[in-house]
Amino acid sequence: MHGPLLDDATVEGYLRRIGATRPPLATVEALRELHRLHVMTVPFENIDFHLRKPIYIGAAAIGKIVDRRRGGTCYELNGAFFELLRALGFDATVLAGRVSENGELGPVIGHMLLRVVAADSAEPWLVDVGFGRGARHPLRFDSREPQEDPHGTFQLVEGPFGDLDLMRDGIRQYRLETRPRTIDDFLHMWWWYRHSDESPHITHLYCTLPTPTGRVTLSGNTLSLREPDRRLKQVIEDDDELRAAYRTWFGLELDELPTGPKVHA
User: Fold this and answer.
1) CA 100 to CA 35: how far, in whole Å?
2) Tell me: the pLDDT tens digits for 187-202?
3) N or C: which end of the chain has fewer CB within 10 A?
């Protein structure tokens, strides 16, 4: 069962965080705009894993994203966005997925994403604002044709046992279930992500955000910028410069820097 809907003050604060205005109706056009703004303004980052701070999912993640103006991982970002969409009148369902790395599938329930239906159409949409290589816009859930997006060409293809594989430029990004899940279904895996030495959120430190024509990423203390006419890779040794990079590129104000893997120039 889902909890109570977000109150108006929380909804308005969330919308301000992503630079959106409250849509009068839960339309496909509104969903597309909310998705785009969320992806382009809220970083995909795992800083608090390395600071060993408490981290929450679902509605409990909204305070971090909105009040502290931070980003998060898929459980945080998609879990929070799920609550915002529900409050705005969308029919949203939580789904689980398995991230694919180098052709190998990761843990079951290792990724959270959403299936959303708007008020003006019965067509379902794949919504994912919590994947570092994801689409800028929602994807047609029932289509098996290639779908063009500013972040690549995406395609949903049939997988085993009723699952679907999401492909980006011909490479599988993750395998997703089509059965509904609840936020609580992810809590045990959330514990593993936060505490296991094998967790990718523990072994890697990252913060990434799309730009209008590319992407900027801080991996440890290495800043990378990819644009059609520009490539930048810089190792940042100075702590003040590292704080400035988080502020300039991602809008993050960090009192404490994470102690993740570092590269030395």
Assistant:
1) 23
2) 999 999 999 999 999 9
3) N
